[in-house]
Amino acid sequence: MKTRDLTDLLLLAAIWGGSFLFMRMVVPAFGPVALAFVRVTGAALVLLPLLLLRGEWPVLRRHWRAMIILGLSNSALPFMLFGYAAYTLPAGLAAIFNAATPLSTALIAWAWLGDPLTRWRSLGLALGFAGVVGLALNKSMASSGLQALQFDTSAALAIAACLLGTLLYGHAASYVKRYLKDQPAMVMAVGTQSAASAALLLPALLTWPAVNPPLRDWALAGALAVLASGVAYILYFRLMTRVGPTQAASVTFLVPVFASAWGALVLGEAVTLPMALGGAVILAGTALVLGLLPRTPRKPRPATA
To answer: φ, ψ for residue 38 (rounded to 5)?
Structure first.
């Protein structure tokens, strides 16, 4: 992984870490379906002029059928699922369950595309997943964790929604590699958000809130649209075409770390020692998945005459 790819990965993790806080704060005003519609529609409106300026509209027209499938599995359906989970799960906990995405992505890529699971990548996935489980257990003992939810039916459904969302993300990553690998990141970002907007239009109209959300919630929804969907998906698809689906999806290992950091800065949530240790394990697992560790030793240059 090159320096620019690592920079994109960290920036993407920081944006998506904040998106879980925004969803938790704004979903009661909009509802999961309407919020997902506002998010993808706003992103499409922001990105479409950029696509036209780049002259990539013909590329999008050629692949519109693939964009429908990708828009459903990578935006419309998972956004609704995580929005539904935000009713019940704290933002940090939802981000932790979202971190199962690299595992889903690696397994789907292995079964569908034949991507090899090397020893180091498998170890990295295991470490990353162990860090996620550790953070989940730590959250479960906190007042904002599963213990406070009393693990009733609503909590079980929220967790199931998160895990189903990770499967959809995993499918989308492999779909890009199979059918859209050489397409520009801007085309995929605009295509997915536009297709998701069209798919969610009627459900959003049917479930639109009776009371118009206040200005603050519209501002948060706008931030989700521009940053967490618009800018973030340009970064994500650019990573996917450069480093592959499993490595790109490993960004979700880092999202809980940033979500916890944003929670501490914005909401005053405490960062405990178990959380710090879990974050360190997640970082180590991500480094293995990305090939940052262990470094392959350079071959010595042949001696000159």
So the answer is: -60, -40
